[in-house]
Structure formats: structure tokens, C-alpha cells
């Protein structure tokens, strides 16, 4: 059986490395990226700044319009600026070596299920050295608990 390519996008909180939303597609159209972005915004609110690379999905009108409508500033990696997206590149490396390379999925839906299980593990259970050995979701929720508005609408720090 000839296997096709699958493309993955993830929306990540840079501070905690938590994957907020992700999608798999068998095309490089922007739609699946915008769907993941919209889910992340709906579930967690818009970030102040969105950093992404210069792939066609992220320079498309659909993507940039969604960012602008949410009030986000857009930051795109510059040529030769490998450190701009180092956190997401590290996520891809971990996903490949800890999940993708260990399985021989026959269908896109099998890949989606396998990646979904790994993302849940990554977010909720996988210790992260940059986070003091805690998983990203734990640090994300602890961080947000500290900045919740109190009854008067003031942020508690």
C-alpha cells in the first residue's frame, strides 16, 4: 500500500509548552490550521502574540485574518531564525521519536488516534525538564490559577 503524507499543526502555549489544539490533514490547505487556531482561542482565549513560521498556511488570508479578528499581534520567524520556533520543533521531534516512528499506521484515522493519545500523554503525564519535571498541563493550570481575576475583576498575582 502506498502511504500518503499527513500534515500536523499544533497551537502551543510557549510558556508552559502545553498543546492547546492540534489537527491532522492530508492537504496543505490552511483550513485545518485555522480550525486548530479557532479551537485554541475558543477554549483558552487569544494570546497577545502568535508566533508562526512563513509556510503558506500561516501567510494565508484565512490564517492572518483569524489572528487579526482576535486582536493578536503576528510574529513570523525570520529567515535563519531557528530559535523563533524552537519549542514547536522540539515538540515535533519528541512526537516523532516517542510515537510516530514506533507505529506503522495504515490509515489517517489510526494516525489521528495515535497522535491524540500521545498529545494527551504529553500534556498531562510526560515530565518536562524545563518545567521542573512537571507536565505542561499542570504548569499551565497552575499558572492560570495565579492570574485568575478576583471578584472585582483584578488579576491576582
From TrEMBL:
Family annotation (PANTHER family): TRANSPOSASE INSF FOR INSERTION SEQUENCE IS3B-RELATED, TRANSPOSASE INSO FOR INSERTION SEQUENCE ELEMENT IS911B-RELATED
Residues of the Integrase catalytic domain: 1-143
Origin species: Tritonibacter horizontis
Record-linked Gene3D superfamilies: Ribonuclease H-like superfamily/Ribonuclease H
Taxonomic classification: Bacteria, Pseudomonadati, Pseudomonadota, Alphaproteobacteria, Rhodobacterales
GO MF, one example: nucleic acid binding
GO biological process, one term: DNA integration
Annotated protein name in UniProt: Integrase core domain protein
PROSITE patterns assigned to the protein according to its UniProt record, in alphabetical order: INTEGRASE
Pfam families reported for this sequence: rve_3
Amino acid at each position: 500500500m502506498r502511504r500518503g503524507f499527513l500534515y500536523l499543526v499544533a497551537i502551543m502555549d510557549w510558556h508552559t509548552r502545553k498543546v492547546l489544539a492540534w489537527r491532522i490533514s492530508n492537504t496543505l490547505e490552511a483550513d485545518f490550521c485555522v480550525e486548530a487556531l479557532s479551537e485554541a482561542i475558543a477554549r483558552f482565549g487569544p494570546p497577545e502574540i502568535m508566533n508562526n513560521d512563513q509556510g503558506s498556511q500561516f501567510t494565508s488570508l484565512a490564517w492572518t485574518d483569524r489572528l487579526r479578528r482576535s486582536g493578536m499581534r503576528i510574529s513570523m520567524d525570520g529567515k535563519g531564525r531557528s530559535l523563533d520556533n524552537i519549542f514547536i520543533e522540539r515538540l515535533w521531534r519528541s512526537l516523532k521519536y516517542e510515537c510516530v516512528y514506533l507505529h506503522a499506521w495504515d490509515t489517517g484515522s489510526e494516525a489521528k488516534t495515535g497522535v491524540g493519545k500521545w498529545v494527551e500523554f504529553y500534556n498531562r503525564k510526560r515530565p518536562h525538564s524545563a518545567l521542573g519535571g512537571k507536565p505542561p498541563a499542570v504548569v499551565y493550570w497552575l499558572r492560570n490559577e495565579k492570574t485568575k481575576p478576583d471578584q472585582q475583576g483584578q488579576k491576582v498575582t
